Amino acid sequence: MKAAITIQPGGPSVIEIRDVPKPKIKSGWALISVKAFGLNRAEIYTRRGESPGVTFPRIQGIECVGVVEEDPSHTYAKGQQVAAMMGGMGRFFDGGYAEYALVPLKIMLPFTSQLPWETLGAIPEMFQTVSGSLHQALEIENGESLLIRGGTSSIGMLACQLAKTKGLTVISTTRNLKKKEALLANGADYVVIDNGTVSDQVRELYPLGVNKVLELVGTKTLKDSLKCIAPKGLVCMTGILGNEWTMKEFTPMGDIPSLGRLTVYMGESDNLSKELFQEFIDHVENGTIVLNIDKVFPLDEVAAAHQYMEDNNAIGKIVVTI
Question: Of 53, 60, 157, 214, which has the fewest Cβ atoms less than 10 A away?
C-alpha cells in the first residue's frame, strides 16, 4: 500500500510517500480501506518529536474515514462505512496517512452517508472535540454567552455553529482582520481582533464578563481568557494553537478569578456515541450544519498540507483524500 511516513522528527519534509506492506489483521482490530482523513495540530507536534512515547518511522494520522476491508470479529461487514479516531492512533500504532489502516475495534464508529469522502474526512475528530468541549466540559446552555479564543480554526468554526444552534451568543477571536467577515458569515455575533489580549474588548461587550470561554490558543492566552469570565464563569482549554504546552508562571489564587472555574477537554473516541455521530452527519447532509473545509490535498501532498497548516493559512479544516 501507499503511505505517508514520518521518517524522523523534523519539518514537513520528513514526511515521505513510500510503498509498504499492508497491515496484517489481528484479533480485536479491523482493517479499514481509508478514503479520507482530516489534518490535526496534534500531528504537527508528533511530527516535530514533541509527542511523548512516539517512535519513528511512524505512519501518522489520529483519525480517518473509509470502509471496512476485513474484520475477523464480524462486528462490521466488509464495505461498511466507518470512522476511527484517537486511542493512540498515529502515535503508538500506525494511523490514517495510508491506503489502509489497522485499528482497534474500540476506536471505530459506524455510520451511513451519501456525503463525499472529503466532507466525511473533516468530521470525526473535529466533531468529537467540539461536542465534548461544549457539552461535557463547558455544559453550555441556551441564553449564555460564549467566547471562542481561536475562532478561525476548524474547531472554532464548528463550535460557533453548534453553539448558535443551542441559543448562545458567540464572540469569536482572530488575529487577522481579513478573517473577520468569514467569522461573521459563520454565525459569530461579535468578532474581536486578538492582539495578544482581548479581555478589555470583551468587557466592553460584556462588562460583567462572559459565561463560558472555549480556549483554543492555549497557555499563551489562558490568563487573559480567565479575565473574560463572569462570576462562576467557566474556561475550557481544548487547543494548543499557540504551540506552547506549559506556562512559566501560574498563580491559581490570582490568575483564576474568584468563583471562576477552569477545566480542560482531552476527549477520546469513547466520549462520542455512534448515535450522536450519525446525528451530526445527518445534520451536515441536510444542510443544517455547514462544514468549513478550507483545502483538500491528495495523499501524495501530505507534507505540503502540514506546511499549509503550520503557516496558519487555513480558515477551517484541512482534509486529505486517498
Answer: 53
